[in-house]
């Protein structure tokens, strides 16, 4: 049955195995399972259903066909840590210090007293999980973690009943999975030490032992600890059998996601599934090699599609797919050379990861934050639709909260608003405007027609990847995106009233 959702304002009846919503007309409906598939560095143009060239993504295409494909959806930030922080807390990351791209030994970035998206679901009777990339810190204090014992703080302290995560990113140490606050497959014969300040004596580095880099070599920065024939950011010692093999990361993430679904098939569940594939170092499993003419990056997108297929097939096998709400998106825009010599740029062969948008990951331009965004819920959404509604990930928190009739504490999710109608295709407009953050905290405001980038003194290129346009300028920038898709014609001088309008929006948001 496909119809308008009608769970808001409902009374909840809890049973042993399901949660039932009593609708205003007296009808009853089982509340949906919810899965957020959060890809890493997947661009607006990287999926076949978004006109990608040279790569096949049948599983994602099918998900879009069963749901709604959004063409004007935005991450909150152009980099990973602040984007994920905002998604899980409903708060703009620039409001809080310490939310920039985190090292692998960062302490917990989300305060234990903050009410999270996982808290909301857990307190509404859901089983909750975080699986895959975390990148929001672990332990009580940066650099003080004991990786050989249970961590003092981990996702379990933020509302997640189960977690199987990477501490940060695949290019940062420690290169081990953390399961419920402890190193998975811990090897007592190889105790783990991690540092981001100095190397460990006797441990080879990518900068000094390039002959040991038999899988991937760096182009910049990533020349420190060597794990699995790939050098990383940061220094690490030990790990033994707990160390991951990059080619098996997708399998590990997928298998643990499937196990969680199977264990909780009789209760409502929420899963935050954060995949790694497209983030560097890109090193997909052999069975995906050569599936795209774009080399490792293209093959990594194919591998991501496989993970989506694994999850969807499991839901269908268990009879859960029809009543599972899936939101598939990315944490920020794409990047090509992000530290490894994988020929990502050389092998594009006409493919545009940003779908022609200006800028990339890190940037204040559209390519930094406009993302693929698909919502599927077969029981409630009529599939095969495209929506131009203006969407921000900041609103996922309160939108889902309204859907499941959750009571959210007054001070929580301060920047999130309810746009569930837009997510379900009922509202074709969405937000009036969205606020976005670049790598150096430059803010932009974007409405359906215009985009304003505030002036700042940052460099024109991203410092560690100068060929990426940062979007920085000492002058205000204003682009009419309705007829200037590539953000080339700055109209700030001729439309000062519009500039002032956006400046006032930013002022009000900052003072909120």
Can you offer a commentary on this structure?
With 512 residues, the chain is an alpha/beta fold. Helix content is 18%, strand content 20%. The protein is built from 8 helices and 24 strands. The strands form 6 sheets. Strands 4, 5, 6, 7, 8, 9, 14, 15, 16, 17 and 18 form an 11-stranded mixed sheet that branches. A hairpin with a 5-residue loop joins strand 2 and strand 3. Helix 4 (249-263) runs parallel beside helix 5. The radius of gyration is 22 Å and the shape is globular.
Number of strands: 24
Quaternary state reads single chain
Q: How much of the residues is beta strand, in percent?
A: 15-25%
Mean pLDDT: 94
Supply Rg: 22 Å
The coarse overall form would be globular
Q: Given the structure, what is the number of helices?
A: 8
Give the helix level as a range of percent: 10-25%
Poorly predicted runs are 1-18, 21-28
- Our measurement of the CA-to-CA distance between the termini, rounded to an integer number of angstroms, reads 41 Å
Structural class based on helices, strands and sheet pairing: alpha/beta
Largest sheet: 11 strands, mixed
């Amino acid at each position: 049955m496909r119809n308008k959702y009608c769970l808001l304002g409902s009374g909840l009846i809890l049973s042993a195995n399901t949660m039932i919503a009593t609708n205003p007309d007296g009808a009853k409906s089982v509340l949906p399972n919810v899965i957020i598939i959060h890809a890493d560095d997947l661009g607006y143009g990287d999926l076949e259903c978004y006109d990608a060239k040279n790569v096949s993504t049948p599983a994602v295409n099918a998900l879009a066909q069963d749901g709604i494909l959004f063409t004007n959806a935005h991450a909150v930030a152009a980099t990973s840590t602040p984007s994920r922080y905002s998604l899980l807390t409903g708060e703009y990351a620039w409001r809080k210090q310490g939310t920039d791209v985190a090292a692998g030994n960062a302490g917990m970035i989300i305060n234990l007293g903050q009410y999270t998206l996982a808290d909301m679901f857990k307190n509404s009777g859901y089983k909750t999980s975080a699986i895959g990339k975390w990148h929001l810190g672990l332990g009580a204090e940066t650099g003080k973690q004991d990786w050989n014992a249970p961590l003092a703080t981990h996702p379990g302290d933020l509302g997640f009943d189960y977690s199987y995560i990477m501490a940060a990113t695949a290019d940062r140490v420690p290169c081990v999975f953390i399961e419920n606050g402890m190193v998975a497959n811990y090897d007592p014969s190889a105790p783990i030490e991690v540092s981001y300040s100095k190397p460990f004596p006797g441990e080879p580095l990518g900068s000094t032992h390039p002959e040991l880099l038999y899988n991937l070599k760096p182009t910049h920065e990533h020349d420190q600890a060597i794990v699995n024939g790939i050098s990383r950011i940061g220094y690490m010692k030990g790990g033994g059998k707990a160390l991951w093999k990059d080619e098996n990361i997708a399998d590990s993430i997928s298998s643990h996601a499937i196990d969680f679904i199977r264990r909780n098939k009789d209760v409502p569940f929420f899963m935050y599934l954060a995949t790694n594939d497209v983030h560097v170092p890109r090193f997909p499993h052999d069975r995906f090699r050569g599936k795209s003419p774009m080399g490792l990056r293209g093959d990594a997108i194919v591998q991501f599609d496989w993970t989506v297929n694994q999850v969807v097939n499991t839901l269908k096998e268990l009879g859960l797919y029809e009543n599972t709400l899936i939101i598939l998106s990315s944490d920020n825009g794409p990047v090509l050379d992000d530290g490894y010599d994988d020929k990502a740029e050389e092998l594009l062969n006409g493919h545009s990861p940003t779908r022609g948008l200006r800028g990339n990951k890190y940037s204040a331009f559209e390519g930094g934050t406009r993302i693929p965004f698909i919502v599927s819920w077969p029981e409630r959404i009529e599939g095969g639709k495209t929506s131009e509604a203006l969407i921000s990930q900041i609103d996922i928190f309160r939108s889902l909260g309204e859907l499941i009739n959750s009571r959210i504490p007054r001070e929580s999710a301060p920047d999130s608003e309810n746009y569930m109608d837009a997510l379900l295709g009922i509202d074709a407009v969405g937000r009036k405007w969205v606020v976005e953050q670049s790598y150096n905290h430059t803010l932009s405001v974007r409405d359906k027609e215009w985009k304003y980038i505030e002036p700042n003194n940052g460099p024109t290129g991203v410092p560690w990847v100068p060929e990426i346009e940062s979007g920085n300028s000492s002058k205000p920038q204003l682009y009419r995106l309705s007829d200037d898709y590539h953000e080339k014609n700055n109209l700030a001088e001729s439309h000062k009233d519009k500039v002032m309008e956006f400046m006032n929006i930013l002022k009000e948001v900052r003072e909120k």
